[in-house]
Amino acid sequence: MIDHDLAALGDAFINFVHSLALSNKTGRAAGSKVKGTLLAEALRRAELREHMPSRMTTHKLADAAEALLVYAWLNGCVTIEESVATLEENSDSIEGLTLLLKKAKSRIKLS
Amino acid sequence: MIDHDLAALGDAFINFVHSLALSNKTGRAAGSKVKGTLLAEALRRAELREHMPSRMTTHKLADAAEALLVYAWLNGCVTIEESVATLEENSDSIEGLTLLLKKAKSRIKLS
After folding, report:
1. Contact between B3 and A29 using a beta-carbon 8 Å cutoff
2. Which of A13, A19, A20 to mutate to test the interface with B (most CBs of B within 10 A)?
């Protein structure tokens, strides 16, 4: 999960998916960058923090979340449509991201 | 084409698609933000500049390109896969973007 290059691709992925979810929610096209603090908190809530080394910065935790999310998409564990729907259904961004990370976690394990 | 909100969503779209194309090309995951100057030049080469008001800044032209690209995707005129492949096949980013804009232009007209 601690792959800087994958995190960079994941950053583009999650910003796109989050922008689509926000657009659908508000009924108006929008662009949105997901903050690292939100991703790091979602990683903790998805109980993924414990799988990682101690002493990681918020930035590194956010990178891990981004890497995991795009890894799941690249491997066909989640679709863009489902990712958008998951974020859209949750009014709270952190909750939506947590749920998405949980899906990624469970499906990557199973595949 | 001059819709600021759509351009913001388009920014997330083109960064994601461009990052995927770059990742495929280099065989290594990567994130990449597409510069406005490239988008504005691609818009000119796709012969879309003449459809727009005069006295537009590079930033506004880039916005128009982003809006058009995501509009085409939202309306099913291009897929993410095709967009990535189009950018990937062209070693020059501007050429890839130009081709993608031309596809969007011709298909939106026909639909």
Report:
1. yes
2. A19
With beta carbons under 8 A apart, name residues in chain A contacting B32: 8, 12
Q: Which of B5, B15, B31 sits opposite A28 (nearest CB)?
A: B5
Picking from A81, A79, A82, A99, the residue whose alpha carbon sits closest to that of residue A91 is A99
Residue of B28, B46, B52 lying closest to B96 (CA atoms): B46
> Taking the CA of residue B56 as centre, how many other CA atoms within 13 Å lie in the half-sphere pointing to its CB?
23
- What is this model's ipTM? 0.91
Per-residue pLDDT of chain B (111 residues; tens, 9 = 90+): 567 899 999 999 999 999 999 999 999 999 999 999 999 999 999 999 998 888 999 999 999 999 999 999 999 999 999 999 999 998 889 999 999 999 999 998 754
| Residue A47 CB contacts under 8 Å (≥ 6 apart), including other chains | none
Q: How far apart are CA A74 and CA B68, in angstroms?
A: 26
Chain B contact for A24 (CB, 8 A cutoff):
no
Q: What is the pLDDT of residues A52-76, one digit of tens each?
A: 888 999 999 999 999 999 999 999 9
Q: Where are the domains positioned within chain B?
A: 4-110
CATH architecture label of B4-110: Orthogonal Bundle (1.10)
Please check whether residue B100 is in contact with residue B83, taking contact to mean a CB–CB distance below 8 angstroms. yes
Helices B93-110 and B80-89: crossing angle in degrees, nearest 10, is 140
